[in-house]
Amino acid sequence: MYNTDMPTRAELPSTGKLLRSTAIAVVTAAALLVTIVLPSEYGIDPTGVGTALNLTEMGEIKMQLAEEAEADAAMDAANRANPPAVDTDSSMRTETTTVAPVVAPVAPPPPPAPPAPERQSSILGTIGALIVSPAAAQEQRQDEMTIVLQPGEGAEIKLTMVEGEVAAFAWAVSEGGTVNYDTHGDGSGQNISYEKGRSVAADDGQLQAAFTGKHGWFWRNRGDAPISLTLRTSGTYTAIERLV
């Protein structure tokens, strides 16, 4: 077994070298903190390097989404403590806040149709489908809700869905407006975030429940003017409600 020889006193770095190396490490860490970490993580750019490297915008997005996630979590906790009444009315309805709309809402396109159940090839399956289809058709519902968001205000609308259920949706903001949004769900002791976006004017698609619970959208108006937002949904969910 070979043991490394102990260095001689002459081979050891001097106190001056150690201090110089420590100073270089501190300066390098400070430079990285100011030019890279602060812009990309917190949107703080005192030198302008973060803006030149497009890091500042990334940091601002992170901070906004973090603030909205905290606000969303607080609202979910408040809703769980004081659950609102669930409206199971299956007819088409329109809900508008008491604040007078100051801008005309833009009607989103009709939501895409939810996926049809798999066809059965056998005669027995066909007969069964003929029996089941009318009942299933009765469970289909369509809803439309329009809300007005003041600058800085947020709103949350969710669907009551069972695991695996699919709902089609489309939403749009009044012309010239955009929102930050978080498509998410909670229930059965679980939470999930499906998608987040920043400065988006419209979106559509299908929302498939990862578990039984409430699934939907949280929007926040980060602009300087009030906006209207219209949401259209269709599917077999049992309820749609505005929670915030």
Offer a concise description of the structure.
This protein has helices spanning 15-42, 49-52, 55-81, 123-139, and strands at 141-149, 154-161, 166-173, 179-187, 190-200, 202-208, 213-220, 227-235, 239-242. With 244 residues, the protein is of the alpha+beta class.
What does this structure look like?
This protein has 244 residues and is of the alpha+beta class. Among the domains are: 66 residues, no CATH class; 103 residues, GOLD domain (Jelly Rolls, Sandwich), CATH 2.60.120.680. It is built from 4 helices and 9 strands. The strands form 2 sheets. Strands 5-4-7-2-9 form a 5-stranded antiparallel beta sheet, covered by helices on one side. Strands 1-8-3-6 form a 4-stranded antiparallel beta sheet, with no helix packed on it. Strand 4 and strand 5 form a beta hairpin. Helix 1 crosses helix 3. The longest helix is centred in the N-terminal third of the chain and has 28 residues. About 16% of the residues have low confidence. It comes from Georhizobium profundi.
